[in-house]
Write a structure and sequence with these properties.
The protein has about 650 residues and is an alpha/beta fold. It contains 27 helices and 17 strands.
């Protein structure tokens, strides 16, 4: 009885708080009507992308065309009313309004007529894409200058004889006052905003391509998005937090792929001290294994002299990386990564490296900065260089701003609308059960492991009460990059040393974790979904991380549709390997569609010739009924709010709470 009384009092206190927002029966009733109406709207479209790898132009175009969703809408709306060339022109105008307008003006003889027809077409498209949202939500996405005008045009129709003159009058006035260009740019932006309700980025914004910083600048202006951190993101997060291994890896990868734009132009990181050091110590070294890969199309290197300097810098930072890796590995014997301290395994006289009892011939044994008696010790110059680089990364305001953005929007995993999103893997035992992984002295598995990992990542950027935990968190960012049981890596080893220095390619092999061998098994996927509390008949795991070799016939849809892998390779460095330029996934009110992209030529080509990303759409799963907001996670929250408001109504009518008129 006492417990019931306490609960009743607690409920009443909650309803009294709720009554401050809805002080009358009329207010509460109006909100119930509003929420019930929202529940019956079509589900908003979700857009899934993964492994962007700095390919800003491709990413920007996929966002602008919503993986072909805008083209599909234009085809649905205009059908046979417009020629294919006209529809293509309209789509290009929506994607790149400012640039396309300049081209139109150069050849169009009657701009007044063109404006009139085009604005009507744009309004029609905007009306269609906004139809699944409340007027309030649409209003929040409208530009201030044209908010009232767009609202009027969206809610009035030219097929209404009484309103046709009114609508035409608005459009003619927009043109006559010289605001047509601004209006077209504004309404194209609204269409792009409303075509996608929620954007999911499944990790790896950074590395390989030249524009990761530009992608993050773009995302900072985007309203509704989330991020599931990838291993390459974690590398840059670790660099920002001051982890020397992460800093060396970031620089090494930039040099390896001949891509210094993000480092030097994006964040202003000064690499001159590294260049000076490399020229001094590796002047006579051909550094053959360290020549940059320039076939990806995003090279910052144009001549042999620069290529040679890049190779010297590449080797210099790689050697420093192996040294500082060994130092952190020694601090954490629980990681069981002693096999990665390969500088200790080199016979510097005979030019061999002993791995698992076997001596392998080295490609080169020229290590001018290594003391064979203490291989992982930094020289005084290396120590000074590492300190300078750490300082450059840890005080970099723009990098910190981008990492804060990734922390606020990101996490290790997300469960949304029956879908479990994470970048790479869930560590599993050989028998397929969830694997225990030690984190700061305790063991975790499955959801608890990813939750704890998320906490550790955030602790690296917060100085809490325990300085030891803070240092552990910074160190752990390296483990997440290359640790065998890392949920972002999950391989036997990262064979960076072997690929650079050992001839025998058998040593280069990295064995993937059990998850990658069992992810095509439906029962395994169901077990993981159960462990994360994902419910519903149509539930899925959605991953990135491992490029899908579509050219070899690999299917991105696995486990009888339970798992979808959407890393088809945005990065140009992967195109030859995968045969395509990436997958994106669209989840709208009628189901899932997987879009397979061919390489994007250029923004200029898209504007001049109306070329688009050529894509193949595969229907993955269609719903038997059109999904409504009521079928989503937000719908469940709104239903709970309706129940609370109904309790408030009852309290008003029973006299438990007085109306505040």
């Amino acid at each position: 009885m006492k417990n019931n009384q306490k609960k009743k009092e607690s409920d009443l206190r909650y309803l009294q708080l709720l009554s401050q927002t809805f002080p009358t029966i009329a207010d509460a009733s109006t909100e119930i009507i509003n929420l019930q109406a929202i529940l019956n709207l079509p589900k908003g479209t979700e857009h899934f992308l993964a492994d962007l790898h700095g390919e800003y132009k491709s990413f920007q175009h996929v966002l602008r065309n919503a993986s072909g969703n805008i083209k599909r809408k234009v085809n649905d709306i205009f059908g046979n009313e417009m020629r294919e060339t006209e529809k293509k022109e309209l789509c290009t105008l929506i994607y790149y309004p400012k640039e396309k307008l300049e081209l139109v003006k150069a050849h169009e003889t009657d701009m007044n007529d063109w404006y009139h027809i085009t604005i009507h077409q744009l309004v029609k498209v905007c009306r269609d894409v906004s139809s699944k949202y409340t007027r309030s939500k649409v209003r929040k996405n409208l530009p201030t200058d044209f908010s009232y005008i767009i609202q009027e045009l969206l809610h009035e129709r030219t097929d209404d004889v009484d309103k046709a003159a009114y609508v035409n009058g608005i459009i003619q006035t927009i043109i006559s006052t010289g605001r047509a260009d601004d209006f077209i740019i504004a309404i194209a932006d609204v269409i792009q905003r409303l075509i996608i309700d929620l954007l999911h980025v499944l990790g790896d914004i950074y590395d390989r391509g030249p524009g990761a910083h530009l992608i993050l600048d773009l995302l900072s202006r985007y309203k509704h998005w989330d991020l599931q951190w990838g291993n390459h993101d974690m590398l840059w997060m670790g660099a920002c937090a001051g982890n020397p291994v992460c800093i060396c890896n970031v620089i090494r990868l930039s040099l390896r792929y001949a891509n210094l734009s993000t480092l030097e132009e994006g964040y202003g990181i000064n690499l001159i001290p590294l260049a000076t050091f490399a020229m001094e110590h590796y002047a006579d070294d051909p550094c053959t294994a360290f020549m940059p890969k320039t076939s990806g199309g995003s090279s910052d290197i144009n001549d042999e002299k620069t290529k040679r300097l890049t190779a010297q810098m590449h080797k210099a930072i790689a050697v420093i990386q192996f040294k500082v890796e060994a130092q952190i590995i020694k601090r954490h014997p629980e990681w069981k990564m002693d096999d990665r301290m390969l500088l200790d395994c080199v016979d510097y006289n005979n030019g061999t490296c002993r791995i698992d009892g076997v001596d392998y011939k080295m490609i080169t044994c020229n290590f001018p900065t290594i003391d064979p008696k203490n291989p992982s010790a930094l020289t005084a110059e290396e120590e000074q260089l590492v300190d300078r680089l750490c300082h450059s990364f840890t005080i970099n305001e723009k990098l910190h701003r981008h990492i804060r953005l990734m922390l606020s929007h990101g996490s290790m995993f997300t469960v949304v609308n029956g879908n479990l999103l994470f970048h790479s893997s869930i560590p599993l035992n050989e028998d397929g059960t969830l694997k225990d992984v030690e984190v700061y002295g305790q063991k975790y598995k499955g959801k608890e492991l990813l939750t704890r990992t998320d906490q550790v990542v955030r602790a690296a950027f917060q100085r809490g009460e325990d300085p030891d935990f803070h240092q552990y968190a910074i160190d752990y960012l390296m483990y997440l990059w290359c640790g065998p049981d890392s949920t972002l890596f999950d391989k036997s080893k990262m064979a960076t040393f072997e690929r650079y220095f050992l001839e025998d390619k058998a040593t280069h092999k990295e064995l993937k974790g059990v998850y990658f061998r069992m992810r095509d098994d439906e029962a395994t996927c169901d077990m993981i979904l159960d462990a994360f509390g994902v419910e519903g008949k149509n539930r899925h795991i959605i991953n990135g991380h491992v490029p899908v070799h579509a050219g070899s016939g690999e299917n991105p849809i696995k486990a009888n549709g339970k798992l979808m892998v959407i890393d088809g390779g945005f990065s140009q460095a992967y195109h030859k390997e995968t045969g395509i330029a990436g997958y994106t996934l669209v989840y709208h009110s009628r189901g899932f569609q997987l879009v397979q992209h061919e390489p994007f030529l250029s923004t200029e080509d898209a504007i001049l010739r109306g070329s688009d990303i050529k894509s193949t759409t595969q229907i993955v799963e269609m719903s038997t009924h059109r999904m409504r907001v009521a079928d989503t996670d937000i719908g469940r929250e709104l239903k709970a709010q309706v129940e609370d408001l109904q309790l408030l109504l009852r309290a008003y009518r029973n006299g438990d709470i007085k109306e505040k008129r």
